[in-house]
Structures are given as structure tokens and as C-alpha cells.
Write a structure and sequence with these properties.
This protein is an alpha/beta fold. It is built from nine helices and seven strands.
Length: about 260
């Protein structure tokens, strides 16, 4: 009887255990492998950030020096937030981001930097007490929104605008609530706000009430007050839900019970 030998047709196990696996690394560039890396970024981010507690994301230009007045304001604001037990999250880069991380860390707070892989290498700034690097912008942006209860946006460029308009879109469409979006630096932002009024709102592209989603100031104390008020409102809403997970259903039951109760003659 002839002994059966493995055929030349490779099975999945044989492909997995083939000799010299380093000879073919094309699978690393496949969409299937990329999907696993994306999943890994989400898992790593969720695992690292889940226990942060109250947090605020601060955005702004990577190109401003630390002694710029806007950078100094970001440092001061982050310090105030950290002293109140609020985590500060930034993109982990230089400029305004480094200033905010510096203010938070020097005040003894949690100072988070969420870096991004870019063609021009950019290291996480040295003021982060917790740092994560991302390959994908969309995974990184999810972390900014998921683990912060508000955005403070200092003057910046395209990346800063991206974060601003994504947060406005999420708030406008009801994807996030109890989420203050604060623009710091009136001189820088008022031209954009005027344009939104004159061109976008007047053309019916957004509603006049959409401007209620934005606040603008030059006062760090005002920023802290707005954020604390928002946190308090969100906590009150959370406690109401815990006491009564479905208030509408309770009201409906009460109304139906009242309808069934016989009225006195």
C-alpha cells in the first residue's frame, strides 16, 4: 500500500507554519491586517483612558512657542483645571499642546498626550504623564471626544479647525451632549464667527440656534466656570437617569393610571 503524502496544495495551517515566514510580508499591507491594527488602536486607547475621570481636551497650534500669550494662557488654564482634579488631554505635540500639558503636569494633574504618526516626525512632548501614539486620525479623534467632557480650542491651523468642526457637527446632530465647545482668543476667532453669521447662517446652511453651541472668550476663569457648570449639569442629569432610567415611561404609566382611576360622582 502506497503511503499517503501531503499534496502540494497548501492548507491554511501549512501556510501559517511555512519556513522562512519573513520572506513574504505583503500581508502586513493588506486591508485585513490594517483592520486589525485599527481595532488594536481602539482597544489600546479604551484600555488606557477609561479611568481618567473628568477631562477636557485642549487644542491649538503646534507652531506657537511656549512664551506666546496664547500658549501661556493654555498653560495657565490647564493648571487651573488640574488643580480641580480635571484631566487635560491634548494632541501631545509642541506649541499650545505642550503648554497645556506643561500646565497640567506641573500642577500635579493627569496630563495626556494623544500623538499621531506624521510624515514629518513629531515626538510626544515631555510634559505628558500618559502618552499614546496613533496611526489613524479617526481612532485618535474618537479618544478626544469619548474621554473628554468639553473642548477648549486655542488659535491654530487646519488640524485645530478639524477638531473644532467635528465637535460642532457631533453636537449639532445630537451625537454628544453636555459638551461645551469654547474658543479662546476673540481676536483670532471672531472673524470666523462673523463669516459663519454672514455667509453660512444667512444662506440657511446652519440654524441661528447653532451658534449656541459655541462660546468665545479671552478669560481663563470664565472658561473654568463654564466647564464646571457643564460638569455639574451633566452629573445632575446622570443622577436623574440612575434614579429613573426611563422617565417618559413612568409619566406614561402615571397618565394611564390616572385615566383608569374612577372619578368621584
Amino acid at each position: 500500500m502506497t503511503e499517503q503524502r501531503p499534496t502540494d496544495r497548501p492548507t491554511e495551517d501549512r501556510k501559517l507554519l511555512r519556513p522562512a515566514p519573513y520572506a513574504d510580508t505583503t500581508f502586513l499591507d493588506s486591508d485585513a491586517w490594517r483592520a486589525l491594527r485599527i481595532m488594536g488602536e481602539f482597544v489600546d486607547g479604551f484600555d488606557a483612558l477609561a479611568r481618567l475621570g473628568p477631562a477636557v481636551s485642549i487644542f491649538g497650534s503646534a507652531r506657537l512657542p511656549l512664551d506666546n500669550p496664547w500658549s501661556q494662557a493654555a498653560e495657565s488654564l490647564a493648571g487651573e483645571l488640574a488643580r480641580r482634579g480635571i484631566t487635560v488631554i491634548t494632541g501631545g505635540g509642541p506649541g499650545v499642546m505642550a503648554a497645556a500639558n506643561k500646565g497640567a503636569s506641573e500642577a500635579g494633574g493627569v496630563s495626556v498626550g494623544l500623538g499621531i504618526e506624521l510624515p514629518h516626525e513629531q515626538d510626544i512632548n515631555p510634559y505628558c504623564t500618559l502618552a499614546l501614539n496613533f496611526r489613524y486620525f479617526f481612532a485618535r479623534k474618537t479618544m478626544f471626544v469619548k474621554y473628554a467632557q468639553g473642548f477648549v480650542i486655542f488659535p491654530g491651523g487646519f488640524g485645530t479647525f478639524d477638531e473644532l468642526f467635528e465637535s460642532l457637527t457631533l453636537a449639532q446632530t445630537g451625537k454628544i451632549d453636555h459638551f461645551p465647545i469654547i474658543l479662546f482668543g476673540r481676536e483670532y476667532w471672531e472673524g470666523l464667527i462673523d463669516w459663519l453669521h454672514a455667509q453660512v447662517a444667512s444662506g440657511g446652511m446652519i440654524s441661528p440656534t447653532d451658534f449656541e453651541l459655541i462660546r468665545c472668550t479671552d478669560d481663563t476663569d470664565e472658561v473654568v466656570g463654564w466647564l464646571l457648570d457643564s460638569f455639574a449639569a451633566a452629573e445632575a442629569a446622570r443622577q436623574r437617569v440612575e434614579r429613573d432610567p426611563n422617565p417618559e415611561a413612568v409619566e406614561d404609566k402615571q397618565e394611564k393610571a390616572a385615566q383608569r382611576t374612577p372619578k368621584p360622582e
